[in-house]
Amino acid sequence: MLAALFPLLLATLAAASCPFMGSVSNLNRRSAGWNPRYSNKMTELDWWNLKQDIQAQIINPGYGPLIVRLAWHDAGTWNGVSGGPHAQMLYTQVAEDEGLHFGQEFLQPIKDKYPAISNADLWSFAGTVVISNSGGPALAWRPNRADAKDAQDDGIQNGMLPDAHWDASELRKLFYAKGFNDQEIVALSGGHCLGEIHTGVSGSWSGKWTQSPSRFNNEFFVRLVNGKYAARPDGLFEDTSDSSFKMLPSDMALLKDPVFRAFVESYASDQSAFFNDFASAWEKLMELGLNGGLGSIVDTNAFAARPEPSQPSVVTSNAPVPSSAPISTDVKTSDTVSTLITSVASASSSSTVSSSKAAGSATTSTDAVSMSGAATDPAKKTTTSGAMSQKAATAAAAVAFYGLLFLL
Description:
Elements: H1 2-17, H2 24-27, H3 44-59, H4 64-75, H5 100-113, H6 119-132, H7 168-178, H8 182-189, E1 196-197, E2 207-208, H9 219-226, E3 229-231, E4 237-239, E5 246-247, H10 249-256, H11 258-269, H12 271-286, H13 333-336, E6 375-377, E7 382-384, H14 390-402
Helix pairs in contact: 4-5, 4-6, 8-11, 8-12, 9-11, 10-11, 11-12
């Protein structure tokens, strides 16, 4: 009798864990009056100032890959019916979101300075600015993604983000459902040029995809084609000529499938082609499920000339975003390694890929912002003030030590 009831009990518990992760009909519910789009009122000068804060507080310290991953995971929850870029992570997290609450905390002081922008827009914009200003292509980006009011607004479900163990057929099944084709799947996978694989979210796996994990380029594809990767007993693939370089099973699936492989080889030999295709795929990803209603394109180049103000700023605080506090190195591995995936990007890391063509926007490295000053968590409606909180200090120290898994 108990054996017969056990599967039913498990199903009941799973459904109870999140009432909006069940049937498609439940996922399509919305709060009264909630609209997936809002009207962003930021001025051209506000956007320029925001880019400077992202450059100074996210990219220069080397935290960019975490923010790119945050933007990816927010938008990537779209399942054809619900989900998408609405900061649902503030209410509902799936297993693939491990460590991303640190990215939210790092961006919170910037959000406090720019109250006119939604969390969903900030995450998306910041991730896009990171790519464009870490050597990547110029990207078109448009505002007006509204934040969910609660867990039922375009609710998300498990299984909407890729798994590191997947083969080509599983990748296609997921991405086709979101409206992507084979070329776009491979192009988005090129985001693995940023960050590293690290223990904590990938079990015992750790290693790097590229020599320059803070730079956006085609090195991931160059190494995938030219490396001599062999499977380890634990499933991770390791370059036999340099064991520090690794590939995930899902990366190797791109080589094993002949259609995927053709794009991999093309991007390895032509960085401009990769940049062009990635730009189109990324812009599509950032707008999944929105179906129009977005604002005008905002320039993502942090090094563009400062615009002359044509209208009053909507930023309520003119105070600078708090600069990052010194990062303590006295951190226990157990405090961080099981929960955080971040970047070990270095501002001085700028290796050149021999088969690459120079393209895209200029500049620096990559990912977080300090938690000094007051910061408000919009999900919990609580406020922390004073110097960097202990939680954020631990997160920042972990960022310095452990490395980002940008899991596409």
